[in-house]
Amino acid sequence: MNGVIGDILPLAVTVAISPLPIIAAILMLLSQRARANSVAFLLGWTLGVAVAATIFTLISALIDTGTGTAGPSVVVSVIKIVLGAVLIVTALLQWGRRPRGDAQPTMPKWMSAIDGITAPKAAGLGFVLSAVNPKNLIMAVSAGVAVGTSGLAVGLQVIAVAVFVVIAITTVAVPVVGYLVAADRIRAPLERLRGWLTANNSAIMSVLLLVIGVVSIGKGISGL
Q: What is the pLDDT of residues 182-220, one digit of tens each?
């Protein structure tokens, strides 16, 4: 169990500190329907992370072709190497798209429409960003492979997935809960955080994806 938690912890942290969903949550907290939209976004985000991690855990449990020995199967090792390679390529592409000098970062067009969004759409946006976003989807696949091929009992796999979900949603949950408790006090810090994340989005994700990709390839090679 400890080994599985160790495997999924950096993956969950990568999802958690992905700048785009944090920026989206902050924009909702600064919008006209701050409370309803931010809570809906958090629920959609949580559901998306949970659904993606669960699906890939179930799939991984079915495709694991290990022979019952302590070592991982060749199939699992190859999957880890492929995932690692995808992460490294994604990191390089992300780094290439980073703003240079005083250039302003290009953010998704949907962010400009958040101020007038409704709660159901906010929930749907949270789900899409967590379950369909390619970067988070790769993290969910990696976590699912780690849990689904671990050989743990079903109950322990459920706990592992729950740990992944809780850690992954933390950075969206904290500002939402903080706003519900003390809206006036955290408005200015949220605005400053949004600006910093917007400026450093590409660099943050590039470093994270590169590190996770290298680690994944290393684990895959060690299992061959």
A: 877 877 887 787 777 777 767 777 887 888 888 778 877
Contact status, residue 135 vs residue 205, Cβ threshold 8 Å: yes
pLDDT tens per residue, range 88-112: 888 888 787 777 766 666 666 777 7
User: Would you state the torsion angle of the CA atoms of residues 110, 115, 120, 121, taken in this order, to the nearest 10 degrees?
Assistant: -10
Q: Identify the burial level of 82 via C-beta atoms within 10 angstroms of its C-beta, where 0-12 means exposed, 13-18 middle and 19 or more buried.
A: middle
Would the pTM count as exceeding 0.85?
no
3-state SS, one letter per residue, for the chain: CHHHHHHHHHHHHHHHCCHHHHHHHHHHHCCCCHHHHHHHHHHHHHHHHHHHHHHHHHHHHHHCCCCCCCCCCHHHHHHHHHHHHHHHHHHHHHHHCCCCCCCCCCCCHHHHHHHHCCHHHHHHHHHHHHHCCHHHHHHHHHHHHHHHCCCCCHHHHHHHHHHHHHHHHHHHHHHHHHHHHCHHHHHHHHHHHHHHHHHHHHHHHHHHHHHHHHHHHHHHHHCC
